[in-house]
Amino acid sequence: MALKTSLLVYLLIFFLVTSVVSAISKPRVGVIPRTRSKGVLPSKSSITTSKEEDRKTFYYTQTLDHFNYKPDSFTTFQQKYIINSRYWGGANTSSPIFVYLGVEGPIEGDIDYILDDYAPIFNAFLVYIEHRYYGESVPFGSWKKAYSNATTLGYFNSAQALADCAELIVSLKNNLSAETSPVIVVGGSYGGMLASWFRLKYPHIAIGALASSAPILDTDNILPEDYYYKIVSKDFEEVSKSCYDTIQQSWSIIDSHEKNGLPFLTQKFKTCNPLNTSSELKDYLEAIYCEAAQYDYDLPPNAYPVNRICDAIDGLSKGTDILTRIVAGAVAYRGEQSCYDIDKYNHPTDQSSLGWAWQICTDMLSSYGRTRNNTMFQISPFDLHKYIKGCQDTYGVSFTPRPHRTAIEFGGHNIRLALQKFGSNIIFSNGLRDPYSGGGVLENISDSVVALPTTNGTHCMDLQPANDQYDPIWLVEQRTSEIKIMKGWIREYNKMLKQENSDRRKGSQGDAVVPSWFLLTIVFIIVKTWIF
Ligand SMILES: *[C@@H]1O[C@H](CO)[C@@H](O)[C@H](O)[C@H]1NC(C)=O
Ligand SMILES: *[C@@H]1O[C@H](CO)[C@@H](O)[C@H](O)[C@H]1NC(C)=O
Ligand SMILES: *[C@@H]1O[C@H](CO)[C@@H](O)[C@H](O)[C@H]1NC(C)=O
Ligand SMILES: *[C@@H]1O[C@H](CO)[C@@H](O)[C@H](O)[C@H]1NC(C)=O
Ligand SMILES: *[C@@H]1O[C@H](CO)[C@@H](O)[C@H](O)[C@H]1NC(C)=O
Ligand SMILES: *[C@@H]1O[C@H](CO)[C@@H](O)[C@H](O)[C@H]1NC(C)=O
Ligand SMILES: *[C@@H]1O[C@H](CO)[C@@H](O)[C@H](O)[C@H]1NC(C)=O
To answer: Would you indicate the residue range of the signal peptide (predicted)?
Structure first.
C-alpha cells in the first residue's frame, strides 16, 4: 500500500515535472552538453597526469537547513566530496585550496576539468563538492524521498548550496590544520554563478572566484528575454546566411503539417514515437540548434556542430525543399540512426533534468522568449503566468515562484555599482559565441573584478583541461591570464596574512608592557601625595 502510494506520487511528479522542463528549449546551464558523454577528448596531451587513484571520495555530514533553528533544520544528509592532495604544498605554506563547486548532476561529471591542470602549477589541494539534491548528495535517505513534494524539495536552493560549501570548507580546513590556506572557488555555468556569489557572500572563506560562463545577469528581467536566442541565431548567421534563412523559413512549413501531416513529419524526421503535435518537432529542433551553438567548439566526435548542421542544410543540391534540408541538418547533428528519440530533448527524465526543473521554478527562474522577428526562431513571447502555472501543476497550487528573489538575494541590477566598491577578486570568463555570454559580465568592473571574454569562445571552454592538439591560441591566452590573476590574489593574500601575523605579534608584545597612561597616573598620584 505504502509502496503503491509512493509510486503513484513519484509517477505523478515525474510526469508533471517534465511539463516544466519542456517549457523552455534552451539547454541547461551545464558545462558540457547533456546529450554528450564525457571523456571524449582524444589523446589528452595536457600538462598533468592526475590519475584516478589520486582522488579520494568522502561524505560530509551536512546540515539540511542552514538558516533555521527549527528541529527539522538539524536533520543531516551525506554530502559527497572528492579530494586530490597529490600536489599540495601543505598547510601553513602559501599553497592554495581550489574548490570546484558542483552543478546540476553527480560530482563525477565535474572532476575532469581544469583543476587537475592547476594542481601542479599552484601546488594546490583540490576539492570537488557535489551540489545538494544531485548525485548521491540527497537528503531524506533517497532520491525518491527527497523529490517527493515541495516540502521535501524546499531545502533545495542556491543559498543552501553555498552554505553547504562554506560549512564543508571550514570543516575540511580545520581537519587539515590549514585554517590560513587561501581558498579559491571555481565553477562553470550555474556553478560559475555559484562561484561568484560564494565570493560575495563568504569573502572570509574564499579569497577569490573563477566564474566561467556565469550568466548572473540572467534574472529578474534585467536582460531582454530574447538575448539567448539572438546569440544562437548570430552564431548560425555567421556560419551561413542561407542556413539561417532555411531554418527561419522552416517553422511555418512544419506548422502547415499540423492538421493532417503529422504522420508525414513523423516519417520524414524518423522520430521513434509518432508526433502528437508539430510543437514537439519544433521544440526538438530548437533544442538541437541551441545546444549546437552553446557547445560549438572543436570537441570530437561532434566538433563544430553549427558548421556541421549548416553544411548539411546548405549541401543539398539546388531546388531541394526546405524540410529535406532541415532533416539533413538534424541527422548531421545526431548521426545516422534508425529512429530519433526526441523525448530526451523534449521530456528529459534523467535525475539532473528533474532537479533542474525545480531550480528553474525557484532560483533559476528567468524569462526566455522571442518577442520580435529578429532571430531565426518563431516569435514566441515569454508568458510568466503560463510558466508559473507549469510550476504549480508540478509542485502544488500553493507553490508560488518568486521571480525577484534571486536578484534580491545575490544582486544583478546595477551590478557595476554594487561590485565596484564592494566586490573583489572575481574573474568572469566568457566566450562570446556562447548564448549564455549575453547574461554574463563582459566588462572590467574594477582592478580585481575582471572580465576575460574571447571572441570565438563558447560555453565554459576555459574550464576544459588544456589540450595541446585542439586549443586555439586565444584559449591558451585566456587560461594563462586566469592563472596569472589568481597567482596575484594568492600573493596578495599571503602578504596580508604575514603582515597581520607580525602586527599581531607586535600587538601582543605591546600588551605585555605597562601602558603609559597607567604610569602617568601613578606618577600623578605620587606627586600629589608628596605635595600634600
Ligand atoms: C511529502 O513527502 C514526504 C516524504 O515522502 C511525506 O512524508 C509528506 O507527507 C509529504 N508531504 C505532503 C504535503 O504531501
Ligand atoms: C572533519 O573531522 C570531523 C571529525 O572527525 C568529521 O566529522 C568531519 O566530517 C570532517 N570534515 C570533513 C569536511 O570531512
Ligand atoms: C598551521 O598553523 C597553525 C597556527 O599556527 C597551527 O595551529 C597548525 O597546527 C599548523 N598546521 C600544520 C599542518 O602545521
Ligand atoms: C506523443 O504522446 C505520447 C503520450 O503522451 C508520448 O509517449 C510520445 O512520446 C509523444 N510523441 C512524441 C514524438 O513526443
Ligand atoms: C520574419 O522574417 C523573415 C525574413 O526576414 C520572413 O521570411 C518571415 O516571414 C518573417 N516572419 C514573420 C512572422 O513576420
Ligand atoms: C580586464 O582586465 C584584464 C587585466 O586585468 C585584461 O586582461 C582584460 O582584457 C580586461 N577585460 C576587458 C573586457 O577589457
Ligand atoms: C574568430 O574566428 C574567425 C573565423 O574563423 C576568424 O576569422 C577570426 O580571426 C577569429 N577571431 C579571433 C579573435 O581569433
So the answer is: 1-23
Give residue 252 CA to ligand 5 midpoint distance, Å.
10
Look at the block and give the residue holding cell 533555521.
68
In a domain, 323, yes or no: no
Q: How many CB atoms lie within 10 A of CB 366?
A: 24
Alpha carbon distance 199, 218 (integer Å): 19
Burial (CB < 10 A; 0-12, 13-18, 19+), residue 532, is exposed
Mean pLDDT, rounded, for 442-456: 97
Least confidently predicted of 20-34, 43-57, 179-193: 20-34
User: Cell for 457?
Assistant: 569562445
**In contact, 456 and 106? CB cutoff 8 Å:** no
**Nearest by Cα to 27 from 390, 364, 275:** 364
Cβ(399) – ligand 7 distance below 6 Å? no
Convert the pLDDT of each residue in 240-255 to its tens digit: 999 999 999 999 999 9
The verdict on residue 297 lying in a domain is no
Torsional sign, CA 46, 449, 94, 193 = negative
Instruction: Please count the other Cβ atoms lying within 10 Å of the Cβ belonging to residue 61.
Output: 10
Taking residue 486's Cβ as centre, other Cβ atoms within 10 Å add up to: 25
Report residue 151: phi and psi, to 5°: -70, -45
Instruction: Please report, to the nearest 10 degrees, the dihedral formed by the alpha carbons of residues 265, 270, 271, 274 taken in order.
Output: 50
Kindly state whether residue 462 falls inside one of the protein's structural domains: yes
- Domain, as residue range, for 147: 30-214+414-532
Q: Would the CB of 167 count as within 6 Å of ligand 4? A: no
Which residue intervals of 176-210 are DSSP H helices? Answer: 190-201
Query: CB of 334 within 8 A of CB of 342?
Result: no
Do strands 125-129 and 208-212 pair parallel, antiparallel, or not at all (unpaired)? Answer: unpaired
User: Does any domain span residue 256?
Assistant: no
Give the atom of ligand 2 at the shortest distance from the alpha carbon of 169.
13
Distance 177 CA to ligand 3 centre (A): 5
Other CB atoms within a 10 A radius of the CB of residue 401 amount to 17
Tell me the pLDDT tens digit for each residue of 464-499: 999 888 899 999 999 999 999 999 999 999 999 999
- The answer to whether 312 touches 329, Cβ cutoff 8 Å, is yes
Q: Which of 387, 403, 404 is closest to 395 using CA atoms?
A: 387
In ligand 4, which atom is closest to the CA atom of 276? Answer: 1
Taking the C-alpha atoms of residue 78 and residue 136, their distance in angstroms, rounded to an integer, is: 8
CATH number at residue 97: 3.40.50.1820
511 is written with which cell numbers? 600588551
